Amino acid sequence: MSAEKQFVPPFASGAGALSGASAHRRTVLIAGGAGFIGSNLARRLLAQGDRVICIDNLETGRSANIEGLIPNPDFAFFLHDIVEPFTVKGPVDRIYNLACPASPPKYQRDPVHTLKTSFIGGLNLLSIAEKKHARILQSSTSEVYGDPDISPQPESYRGLVNTVGPRACYDEGKRATETLFYESHRQSHVDVRIARIFNTYGPRMDPEDGRVVSNFVVQALTGQPLTIYGDGTQTRSFCYIEDMLDGLTALMEADEVEPTIFDPVNLGNPHEFTMLELADLVQDLTGAKVKRDFHPLPKDDPLQRRPDITRAKTILGWEPKVPLHDGLIPTIEYFRDEIEMAQQKIGGVA
Ligand code: NAD
Ligand code: UDP
């Protein structure tokens, strides 16, 4: 058994940590804080005065996402795989578990580790939550519904998931971890929240992530054919990152409601698009005159996905505000800058 590491954030000790004006400042642990959603969340929380501890093994996250935060005295980064047990010195008030590769090619690269990240990583974080009396939010996923045979998908839908397909390491890892969180609440009264996140996009996605928005935008900006899997009529519902952060933080901060705040909540944008419609929009907004290459649809790729967000609207008063067209504009700008920076680096080396 590996020894438990202890991480000591610079703000963990000292008289000022939880006294006087600092008394209301929260310390928030973000597992997966160097990833797309995590690094955006870290900025949001720091801006509102929280202290942030980021734990990440940089498996799919990028140091570029958090470089700008390192000088901030309220931010601490620890390179660590959450599958290995760890503790954190000092108070922790909130834990967001965003650690897990989210892109299909990335989570399928080491499927057993993906399962361990969800379940054993989740267990390790729950143990910290229990010891610190912290509230903990699990980033679950629309993939718990698998390839759904109803649309839209409400939380009550139990899903259609293949336990032995290429996506199962992600889907079943997330499903089992929902159960782990649910039982940790029932058995040990851990204050849990479970967000079922639907496809989210925006700045700080990895250009080489392999998901559809990053692929199409990078391909359009670099003059390559757009890669369409299947015939492109499969659907997804895309949520802009700022809307997702509003939803995640609202769920985290929501106090108990009837019937229960501890059950899963769908977070996503209910506007549904085919991949061909997404390709059209990306081409319109970038002005790219590129071809489309059609590839086989990957096994078990869901044909439709659209959240029913009635529960989030009712208990959180939350719904997304940013239409896909409007969210793609800053996203395209971000990828344009990333591509330029990468080209400058290559130019500098040559
Ligand atoms: P991402 O891949 O950009 O970020 C995941 C982060 O977790 C990365 O920084 C990665 O290095 C880190 N990580 C992975 N395994 C780890 C481990 N064992 N120990 C420590 N760190 C680890 O993905 P994202 O889009 O930011 O997604 C964040 C979370 O939200 C994930 O749990 C994902 O399953 C969930 N989610 C995302 C979406 C989406 O559309 N973005 C949809 C549904 C669910
Ligand atoms: N997809 C595509 N071209 C790409 C990448 C993905 O047509 O270059 C398709 C993929 O097959 C899926 C949809 O786009 O039907 C969304 O894929 P993504 O990997 O972004 O997310 P997920 O399948 O996990 O929802």
Give me some keywords for this one:
350 residues; alpha/beta; Rossmann fold; 15 strands; binds nicotinamide-adenine-dinucleotide; binds uridine-5'-diphosphate; UDP-glucuronate decarboxylase; transmembrane; UDP-glucuronate decarboxylase activity; signal-anchor
Layout: helices, strands, pairs:
Blueprint (H helix, E strand, L loop, with lengths): L4 E3 L19 E5 L4 H12 L3 E6 L18 E5 L6 E3 L5 E4 L6 H4 L3 H22 L2 E7 L26 H21 L3 E6 L2 E2 L10 H10 L4 E4 L5 E3 L1 E2 H13 L11 E3 L4 E3 H12 L5 E4 L14 H7 L7 H26 L1
Parallel strand pairs: 1-5, 2-3, 2-6, 3-4, 6-7, 7-8, 8-13, 9-12, 10-15
Antiparallel strand pairs: 11-14
Helix pairs in contact: 1-6, 3-4, 5-7, 5-9, 7-9
The structure holds nicotinamide-adenine-dinucleotide and uridine-5'-diphosphate.
Membrane topology: Single-pass type II membrane protein
Pathway: Nucleotide-sugar biosynthesis; UDP-alpha-D-xylose biosynthesis; UDP-alpha-D-xylose from UDP-alpha-D-glucuronate: step 1/1
Enzyme class: lyase
